[in-house]
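Memo to structure team: turn this sequence into structure tokens by end of day. - J.P.
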Amino acid sequence: MQGKLNNFLNSKYFIPVVIILIAIIAFCLGRISGLQEKREPVRVINNSPPISVNNPLNPPYVKGEAEKENLGEVKGVSTSSSGSVVASKNGTKYHYPWCAGAKQISQKNLISFNSIEEAQKAGYSPASNCKGLK
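Reply from structure team:
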């Protein structure tokens, strides 16, 4: 068996066989990576009727209270956090109200700041898991 392997390694067929095997492996890897690009894109489908001024089912949009209610429901943060960043009384980091860390702060410990500078002056530093904070 050892003699046959040595004969093959020293023969003129060894290099072409290695090249063919490398080409087959490269082709397979290319096909696998191409599968990820063929995923169907995410589509947003809006089934609500168009907003009409005279439609009684669509009351006119009033900026203010409705926005605050939606912020609390969608973002999971209390409407009392009207500042641009929030923090915990017991913590050292500040977050945007929509960040995951802000959603974990209990209402009794929630502090809101009107600006990032105000939070920094109070001794808080930016949360590393909240993108866009400096």
